[in-house]
Amino acid sequence: MSMIADFYGGKSILITGATGFLGKVLMEKLFRTSPDLRVIYILVRPKAGQTLQQRVFQILNSKINMQMKTRRPHELFEKVKEVCPNVHEKIRAISADLNQNDFAISMQDMQELLSYTDIIFHCAATVRFDDHLRHAVQLNVTATQQLLLMASQMPNLEAFIHISTAFSNCNLKHIDEVIYPCPVEPKKIIDSMEWLDDAIIDEITPKLIGDRPNTYTYTKALGEMVVQQESGKLNIAIIRPSIVGATWQEPFPGWVDNINGPTGLIVAAGKGFLRSIRATPMAVADLIPADIVVNLTLAVGWYTAVHRPKSTLIYHCTSGNLNPCNWGKMGIQVLATFEKIPLERAFRRPKADFTTNNVTTQYWNAVSHRAPAIIYDFYLRLTGRKPRMTKLMNRLLRTLSMLEYFINRSWEWSTYNTEMLMSKLSPEDQRVFNFDVRQLNWLEYIENYVLGVKKYLLKEDMAGIPEAKQHLKRLRNIHYLFNTALFLIAWRLLIARSQVARNVWFFIVSFCYKFLSYFRASSTLKV
Ligand SMILES: CCCCCCCCCCCCCCCCCCCC(=O)SCCNC(=O)CCNC(=O)[C@H](O)C(C)(C)COP(=O)(O)OP(=O)(O)OC[C@H]1O[C@@H](n2cnc3c(N)ncnc32)[C@H](O)[C@@H]1OP(=O)(O)O
Ligand SMILES: NC(=O)C1=CN([C@@H]2O[C@H](COP(=O)(O)OP(=O)(O)OC[C@H]3O[C@@H](n4cnc5c(N)ncnc54)[C@H](OP(=O)(O)O)[C@@H]3O)[C@@H](O)[C@H]2O)C=CC1
């Protein structure tokens, strides 16, 4: 019997960010392992044209692939529906916007949340690297502060689990499971965001974030400080995952549904848009599968509530120190998988190289990214269609420039608390809530990741693989034709303009002619 699964039975659980990547996997695992939980409250903001019910429906139900008109196998909540057929009755969606005062939650809903919540998992955040500081502070800092205030009014609350990121202190090389203070107090930052105008905020942002690369990592660090300062009598724990990737094993290998982190680049490589990337092949690729993060989160929730550690414990959910893999190995495996299982309608053949300095990066960006996009847009214009490739390529290059910081450095995260927790679990819990990253086989994981991107994110049918391979062959022929034509044109132009080139050309032609004549003569003699 799993003690952790048992613990969540009958509980009322509040999840923020449940419509996000990690939130969905968390909810799925909770329902699958503790189908007798009382309710999961999810704070959901209404989105353009969608009611709350429609958003919940979208999480729970398989999307129909309109091209195939069939229900696709393996949607996220498929297994849950077997063990918990009334799952939709156990999700209580509460209209809430974390950017608003009191989250704009109705009085009645607030009363219900305060009275019944036993555990909080705070996953909501803005994960954009380029978010305006005001917005990033509002969501990653102020909202966390408000949620803690709410939590302090919950008489039944047993644990508050805050999801941060292993990169909140990415300005350091070695990171321990402690909170490192930022120079300016979060309260001062929150206050200043109230009265400073956008232009001044823009001006001071680089000074505030200091040696961190973006507003995301900075505000996540401030969020941790807020958690520490406002913890009061609450039982709190912080989890710091590194780069969250597709699921490893559960509920299915390779499940992923958004383009954050490496996923977007995997798609770009598979579709042939991404041809070169500025990355250090030997740098540690600290990826961590989403199901490992979720298993650790649920174990931490149990441990924090039951064992009530005296101080706020921080748990690193990283792979680098226990089972390292590097970007070089990862890139090779991604491309090898696309050889076997290509994506449909690729723009070019999947083939990408790592570059290591600014000059080669600029060169390959011009030759392999910008030039093909301009040529393709020219072709689209000629055939009366709207050009779009240059815009898409510029977006990709912007994304690459934002991710570069993370793929050209290595960090060391200590994992004492995480390993301590693992040793406290029963063998059954170690199996059901496995977060031992040492058991992960990277090559197998990456292959499943790439396959998952094709199946779950892009919703491509496996039956289309032969056609996708055919398409790649056509692209290869076009590539050879194009290169030959380019060579001939360049040569013709050179010959027209340069006496030296002409001389070289005549020398080569006469040499070939003599060579052939010699062969012809010697074969005639033999006869
Ligand atoms: C040699 C072969 C190589 C093969 C590949 C090898 C893999 C190497 C991978 C290396 C990756 C390294 C990643 C490091 C990440 C470190 C992470 C730190 C960990 C964390 O804690 S944070 C969580 C991660 N966060 C992110 O990843 C967010 C990063 N993204 C952004 O900040 C912004 O999106 C970005 C990059 C600034 C781009 O902004 P913008 O140009 O404005 O574009 P949009 O965001 O508007 O989106 C464009 C387009 O995509 C759609 N979109 C956006 N997000 C999603 C989503 N989550 N799911 C689905 N679709 C999404 C969006 O709607 C837009 O579509 P349109 O149709 O409207 O144009
Ligand atoms: N993905 C990763 O690589 C990593 C993630 N993390 C952390 O994990 C957590 C979850 O990340 P992930 O699932 O990937 O992120 P997602 O972007 O997929 O999800 C973010 C969630 O926050 C919600 N949210 C955003 N703004 C608001 C708002 N104003 N009001 C209510 N809800 C809001 C989103 O809701 P909506 O659907 O309405 O947009 C969504 O549910 C975050 O705290 C992140 O910092 C840490 C390390 C790595």
How is this structure best described in words?
The protein has a domain at 469-524. Helices cover 54% and strands 11% of the residues. The chain has 20 helices and 15 strands. The chain has helices at residues 3-8, 21-33, 52-60, 78-83, 87-90, 107-116, 133-152, 186-195, 198-209, 215-229, 262-270, 290-307, 327-340, 358-382, 389-407, 416-424, 427-432, 442-457, 465-497, 499-526; strands at residues 12-16, 39-44, 64-65, 70-71, 91-95, 119-122, 159-163, 174-175, 236-241, 243-245, 276-278, 287-289, 313-317, 353-355, 412-413. Residues 64-71 have low confidence and may be disordered. It binds ligand L6B7KVET and NADPH dihydro-nicotinamide-adenine-dinucleotide phosphate. Residues 127-130, 165, 167, 243, 258-262, 265-266, 269, 277, 330-331, 334-335, 352, 395, 398-399, 402-403, 406-407 line the site of ligand L6B7KVET.
